[in-house]
Amino acid sequence: FKISQLFKKCMAALEEVEGDVAELELKLDKLVKLCIAMIDTGKAFCVANKQFMNGIRDLAQYSSNDAVVETSLTKFSDSLQEMINFHTILFDQTQRSIKAQLQNFVKEDLRKFKDAKKQFEKVSEEKENALVKNAQVQRNKQHEVEEATNILTATRKCFRHIALDYVLQINVLQSKRRSEILKSMLSFMYAHLAFFHQGYDLFSELGPYMKDLGAQLDRLVVDAAKEKREMEQKHSTIQQKDFSSDDSKLEYNVDAANGIVMEGYLFKRASNAFKTWNRRWFSIQNNQLVYQKKFKDNPTVVVEDLRLCTVKHCEDIERRFCFEVVSPTKSCMLQADSEKLRQAWIKAVQTSIATAYREKGDESEKLDKKSSPSTGSLDSGSESKEKLLKGESALQRVQCIPGNASCCDCGLADPRWASINLGITLCIECSGIHRSLGVHFSKVRSLTLDTWEPELLKLMCELGNDVINRVYEANVEKMGIKKPQPGQRQEKEAYIRAKYVERKFVDKYSISLSPPEQQKKFVSKSSEEKRLMIAVNSDEARRESLFCPDELDSLFSYFDTSSKLRSIKSNDSGIQQSSDDGRESLPSTVSANSLYEPEGERQDSSVFLDSKHLNPGLQLYRASYEKNLPKMAEALAHGADVNWANSEENKATPLIQAVLGGSLVTCEFLLQNGANVNQRDVQGRGPLHHATVLGHTGQVCLFLKRGANQHATDEEGKDPLSIAVEAANADIVTLLRLARMNEEMRESEGLYGQPGDETYQDIFRDFSQMASNNPEKLNRFQQDSQKF
């Protein structure tokens, strides 16, 4: 009976201890979580505090011009950095004392208690089962009775052993939890004690400096109040004065020490679609016109070199006091605040232009010496990768033409600029004036700094200053007008505008239309000649390609990036084998023997009327077929429409006549003067159609480079590619297909307005070089001249 009571008390005590341990575990888990949250918050506080300290340091660096502020802020930021370090140490010790120790106690000691508890509960259950089994055995089954008795005895021994272990683990846990909790908390409190002692020592050392700084601050407050009173007095005095704007006092100084000739606010019209006006700070400095949105911004250059610009009044817009500065690349519309300011700015710009010429007279020569050496003449046949001529080669070639050694308009020696649509050479000052006329009158390029396509350089060599001046200065001496001299910029502007825009000096002969029967005679004769030019020879051998079949396959596979292109390739794949498959020869056309015929071999023009009896459009039409560039320039000077259509001859244009004449330079001249490369005749054929029919590979290449539409079809529904395929002209087919593939590639990749693939550009440069320098390579098959 006593044993039963003792066992009952023991089990009650165990239940109480187990409940206490469970609650202890909850409390410790909560404390560890709170400690972790505190540490994380403390670290975040340290990060924010460090950012704040860095802000103080940035402010100290910004206040480098104030020694007191910089020194004070630097000391304070260093002290705060020390406190951040102390905080970091505190949180590290807290993590070790609270988090690490208590977590270890929960994970290790409490885990052992739980394991002992599980074993005790298991052996208790086994003992109860043994008791039940022993009670259920019948007395007449002696063997089962002995077995149940033995099991019960063994189970009771195991139960006593496990119970003693469990009680031992409980006693160890009760003893250890006291020491672990107190040890961790004591370590935590010592960490705080060390933290506050360190902070106290730190600020004790900083205290005297803070006291001195407070005294200085008191003096600063007094000085600031005194300065405020003085400024208020000055402000009151200034308000009593009357400031009136006096624009007459505005001056400019070309010899200013800082290089700024003149500066001030101007309104600038934006180049966007809205044409908004914005007020900007403009200045003329270092022979440039620049402006700034804000004074601290880097200047934006409007005019790189004042020598290349001109300035003029603008009275044709709604705003007052406007003037325009025209540079080689753009035009800038400006507005001053008054008429006097506008005049001052215009005079300052003009004076700066004159000064720029005096100071930089030799600059162009220096640039010429630094430019690339000659890459060979036009007739050298060089096969180098760079097909465009640049630098001294273009300069030397063009200056060899009669009259080109001096400026066409003012006579200054050694001109380095050219007007490519007029075919003349210009000095740098006259080139700037030509740019201000607009590209519909003159297109300016540098002979030393720009790249020159071979057909364009050939065009420059076909004309020249003497030829053009005989047209545009025919009546200068009769009118008693003298050409301007170098340096007379205003006189030059007036003279050049009168010469090329108003055309005052052109011989004003009376232009009368020829009688209808005479016009018909001219048309009839020229039509017969052109029919002979495009006669078909069914027995003529098919044209060979400059590319072998393997090269063509590799080219087309390089550009073949879509199923559409692959279908084009498959449809046209029979070009090369057409001459060998035994089929009947398709009609092919005959082209001129050479793109540049000698003067003596040009077609007799006696059937044509004298040019003075033709209207300018018809004169241009005739001269284009004759390859007579001087006559073409004369017709344009007399007002010929470059896109004039001959209604008596299928509405053919001068550009189509140039194609029939077989001259690449003539086509280039018309294109540079605004000819429409896509204007078609009544048969729906444009210049590209005619060049393809005649087999003029150089002209096809030129038109494709100038934006010809190769998708246009004639009345028979044929585009240039289908015509070239029928004629089995492999070179033209290659050019047309590559151009079409390149166009589709650019459209698929969204590269609108860009030249396209580098391989495509290289091939077209090769053809351009051959057409200008070695045309015989494009005309390798023989023609029987007697057939014509």
Walk me through the structure.
- The protein is of the alpha+beta class and 788 residues long.
- The chain contains 22 helices and twelve strands.
- A seven-stranded antiparallel beta sheet has the order 4-3-2-1-7-6-5, sandwiched between helices. It has a three-stranded antiparallel beta sheet with strand order 10-9-11. It has a two-stranded antiparallel ribbon with strand order 8-12.
- β9 and β10 form a beta hairpin.
- α7 crosses α10 and α9 packs parallel to α15.
- The longest helix has 98 residues.
- The C terminus is likely disordered.
- One of its GO terms (molecular function) is GTPase activator activity.
- It comes from Rhinopithecus roxellana.
Largest sheet: 7 strands, antiparallel
The total number of structural domains is 4
CATH architecture of the largest domain: Alpha Horseshoe
Give me the Rg, rounded.
50 Å
Q: What name is given to the CATH topology of the largest domain?
A: Serine Threonine Protein Phosphatase 5, Tetratricopeptide repeat
Helix content estimate: 55-70%
**CA-to-CA gap between the ends?**
147 Å
Taking pLDDT < 50 over at least 5 consecutive residues as the criterion, the unreliable ranges are 364-391, 510-544, 547-551, 557-612, 780-788
Number of helices: 22
> What is the CATH H-level superfamily of the largest domain?
Ankyrin repeat-containing domain
User: Per the principal axes of the C-alpha atoms, what is the gross shape?
Assistant: elongated
Report the portion of residues in β strands.
5-15%
**Number of beta strands:** 12
What topology, given as strand order, has the largest sheet? 4-3-2-1-7-6-5
Q: Class of the largest domain in CATH?
A: Mainly Alpha
Helix-strand category? alpha+beta
Coiled coil: 7-34, 110-140, 210-241
Organism: Rhinopithecus roxellana
Region (Disordered): 364-385, 569-605
Domain PH: 259-354
